[in-house]
Task: inverse folding
C-alpha cells in the first residue's frame, strides 16, 4: 500500500481525463484520477446523456472503471475542472467513493490557484456504507 500520494501525477491524469469529458449539454468538463491501494491510477470523466439524468459524473466513471479492473480500495482522488475555482465532488459521488475508501484523501484542482484538500470522511460525515450491512 503506497503511503505517499503522488499528487502531481494524479493531477496530470485528472487533467488528461477532463479532455475526454462528453459534455455537450452542460459544457462543464470534469476529470478524476483515483489512486488504488495497489498503486494503480485510474481515470474517469463525466459522460452526459440526452436523457440528462443518466449523466455519469467523472468520479463515478473512475470508480466503476477501477472496480471493473479489479480494484478493491481507494487511497486518494484528484478532481480537476477547467474553472477558476475548484469543484468538490457531488453528494452522489461522495457516497460512491465512500464504498471503496471511507478514509481517502480528496483533492480538487482547477485553473486557478485555489485547491480543496480534504478527506472523504470530512465531506461525508456519518456515512452509510458497507459496515452498516455487516
Ligand atoms: N459533475 C461531475 O462530473 N462530478 C461532480 O462531482 C459534479 C458534477 C458533472 C456532471 C455534469 O456532467 C456536469 O458536471 C454538470 O453538473
Result:
Amino acid at each position: 500500500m503506497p503511503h505517499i500520494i503522488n499528487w502531481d501525477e494524479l493531477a496530470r491524469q485528472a487533467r488528461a481525463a477532463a479532455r475526454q469529458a462528453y459534455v455537450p449539454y452542460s459544457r462543464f468538463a470534469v476529470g478524476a484520477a483515483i489512486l488504488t491501494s495497489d498503486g494503480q491510477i485510474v481515470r474517469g470523466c463525466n459522460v452526459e446523456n440526452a436523457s440528462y439524468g443518466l449523466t455519469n459524473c467523472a468520479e463515478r466513471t473512475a470508480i466503476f472503471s477501477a472496480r471493473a479492473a479489479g480494484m478493491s480500495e481507494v487511497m486518494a482522488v484528484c478532481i480537476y475542472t477547467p474553472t477558476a475555482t475548484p469543484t468538490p465532488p457531488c453528494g452522489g459521488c461522495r457516497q460512491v467513493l465512500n464504498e471503496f475508501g471511507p478514509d481517502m484523501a480528496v483533492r480538487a484542482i482547477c485553473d486557478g490557484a485555489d485547491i480543496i484538500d480534504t478527506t472523504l470522511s470530512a465531506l461525508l460525515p456519518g456515512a452509510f456504507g458497507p459496515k452498516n450491512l455487516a
Remarks:
- The mean pLDDT is 97.
- The first helix runs from residue 7 to 18.
- Residues 23, 26, 28, 30, 46, 48, 55, 57-59, 89-90, 93 surround tetrahydrodeoxyuridine (CB under 6 Å).
- The CA atoms of residues 34 and 77 lie 4 Å apart.
